[in-house]
Structure of Hydroxymethylpyrimidine/phosphomethylpyrimidine kinase:
Amino acid sequence: MTEIAKALTVAGTDPSGGAGIQADLKTFQEIGVYGMSVITSVVSQNSLGVKSFVDLELDFVESQFDAVFEDIPPNAVKSGMLSNPNVMALTARKLKEANVANYVLDPVMIASSGHALISETAREKIAKELLPLATVVTPNLPEAEALTNREIKTIDDMKEAGRVLVEDYGVNAALIKGGHYEGEADDYLYDGQTFEKFSAERFDTKHTHGSGCTYAAVITAGLANGKPLYKAVKDGKAYITAAISNPLNIGKGQGPTNHWGHRWSEVQPTTKV
Ligand SMILES: Nc1ncnc2c1ncn2[C@@H]1O[C@H](COP(=O)(O)OP(=O)(O)O)[C@@H](O)[C@H]1O
Ligand SMILES: Cc1ncc(COP(=O)(O)O)c(N)n1
C-alpha cells in the first residue's frame, strides 16, 4: 500500500478562514494530501483587513517543528508568514536539519489588504537564508520588487526579477505572480534555464483574499505527491483560477477564494435554496 503524501505549512493564522494556515490546510485537504501546520503568529484578520497579531515565542515555534518532524516527516514544506528574522533563521535551520527536499517559499510581506505582515530586516533574512533552500519562491509583484530592489513595470521586468532571484540569490526557481499586474493574470516561472508562462483570464472580482497562500499550497501538495515543479505549478494555476472565477461571495470586504471552485458544478456547498 502506498503511503499518503504529507505536507507541512509554516505560517500565520486567519480566523476568518481565507488565508494563512487555514487556507493551506483547506487546500491540502481538498487535494488529498495529509496537512500539518506550524503556527508562527496568531493574526486577527478577516476579509476587511488585519486588526492585530501576536508572534509566538521562538521556543514554542521550535517545539512545534520538533513535534512534526519527530513524528510525521512531511514530503514537502511551505512557508508563508514568517513574522520576524528569528523565526526565519529557525525555519532555515529546521529545514536543513530535517533535510527537506521540497520547499515552497511564499515570501509573505504584505496582506492583500495592504497591511505589512513582516519587518524590513526580515526581507534580508529571506534573501540570505531561505531563498537558497527553496525549490521555488512565489512572490507577487510588490514582494518581487522588495526582494530584488528593482521596480517592476513590464513583463520583461517580471522576468528579470525571476532571473535575479535564481542567478543572484540562489533560489532553485522563481514564480513571479502577475495578480497585481494589469491585463491578464499571467505568472512567469524561471528555473535557471527557461521561462514558462502560466496564463489566466483576469476576473473582475474583489474576492482574492488568500489567493497567494492557496496557490503556493497547491504547488506544495503537488511536490509532496512527487510531481515535477512545472506540473505542480500548472495544477496550482488551474486550482487558483477556478477558486477565483467561482467566488463564494462571502465576507464584507475582499472575500476568500473558493476551494471547491475546480469542481464547482459538482459541489455547491454554500448555495442556499
Ligand atoms: N482577478 C484575478 N483573476 C484571475 N487570476 C488572478 C486574479 N488576481 C490574482 N490572480 C492570480 O492569483 C494568483 C495569486 O496572485 P497574486 O495576487 O499576484 O498573489 P498574492 O495573493 O500573493 O498577492 C496568481 O496566479 C494570479 O495570477
Ligand atoms: C497569516 C496570513 N498569511 C498570508 C496572508 C496573505 O494573504 P494573500 O494570499 O491574500 O496574499 C494573510 N493575509 N495572512
The chain is about 35% helix and 15% strand. Residues 6-134+206-263 form a domain with the UDP-N-acetylmuramoyl-L-alanine:D-glutamate ligase fold (CATH 3.40.1190.20). The pocket of adenosine-5'-diphosphate (ligand 1) is lined by residues 112, 140, 177-180, 185, 187, 200, 202-203, 205, 208, 211-212, 215, 237, 240-241, 244 (CB under 6 Å). Residues 148 and 164 are 7 Å apart (CA to CA).
